[in-house]
Amino acid sequence: MNKLVKDALVLTCITVVAGFALGLVYEITKTPIANAKIAALQEAYQSVFADAASFEPIEDFDSNAATEIVQAAGYTDDTIDNVAKAVDASGNVLGYVITDTTKAGYGGSITFSIGITNDSVINGYSITSISETAGLGMKATDTGEGSFASQFVNRNAEIFTVTKTGASSSSEVDAISAATITSKAMTNGIDACVTYFNSLVGGAANE
Fold first, then answer.
1. What is the pLDDT of residue 27?
2. How far apart are CA 143 and CA 101, in angstroms?
3. What secondary structure does DSSP assign to 18-58, as a single string?
4. Which domain holds residue 123?
5. Number of separate domains in the chain
6. Other CB atoms closer than 10 Å to residue 7's CB: what's the count?
7. Mean local confidence (pLDDT), 69-74
């Protein structure tokens, strides 16, 4: 009996010490982690809106309400996480940066930001979180000439579809070879952003 009590006390002590240690590590690392996420998001914003001097949050932005809009349009795998105004040095709004998370990726959720100008032109996208297959779905992060991402640069903000037989219209994009699921996840996510952009600025070009 005494041994049982002793073992229980030892186990309790170990649990308390481990819990304290985990809590301490969390307190020490939470601020650097949060700062790193903010820095990554700002870098993504700047990469899709190079002309912007700063980015301002949308007043009263509601992620749940924004997500309801895109999910009602059929993009049920997408969440609109955030929206910011891209502003030049004089305070003029150049367009918007919309951050989306799609859970339709092959390896799980993908989070990215897309820049759309006031003239409804897409500047491109920047991925901040992705876990796709190396050498296949991860090609979605490539931004060089001829990449999947490059197909969305300087394109009119319209609803896109993925094709594996060669894009032949303004609304089609070529899938990443052997990564159709990733291609569709990204494209649907971009379509969700375009849908929200249209609701944000009152546009109806694609409705």
1. 76
2. 19
3. HHHHHHHHHHHHHHHHHHHHHHHHHHHHHHH-TT-SEEEEP
4. 48-204
5. 1
6. 10
7. 97
In whole angstroms, what is the distance from residue 20 CA to residue 10 CA? 15
Helix (H, G, I), strand (E, B) or coil at 14: helix
Q: Over range 159-179, report the average pLDDT.
A: 95
3-state helix, strand, coil in the chain (%, to 5): 45, 25, 30
- For 81, half-sphere exposure in the C-beta direction (CA atoms, 13 angstrom radius) is 17
Establish if 8 belongs to a structural domain. Answer: no
Q: What are the C-alpha distances in Å from 95 to residues 23, 82, 117, 162?
A: 41, 14, 4, 26
Is residue 2 assigned to a domain? no
How high is the pLDDT of residue 82?
94
Q: Which of 38, 22, 37, 41 is nearest to 100 (CA)?
A: 41
Residue 206: per-residue pLDDT: 41
pLDDT at 165: 93
Measured CA distances, 34 to 31, 44, 45, 103, 129 (Å): 5, 15, 17, 22, 14
Locate 42 and state its tokens. Answer: 């700002």
The mean pLDDT of the chain is 91
Whether pLDDT at 54 is above 70: yes
In a domain, 113, yes or no: yes
- Please report whether residue 36 resides in a domain: no
* pLDDT top residue among 204 and 134: 134
- Tokens matching residue 63: 């992620």
Please identify which residue in the block is written with the tokens 């546009």.
203
145 HSE (CA, 13 A, CB side): 0
113, pLDDT greater than 80: yes
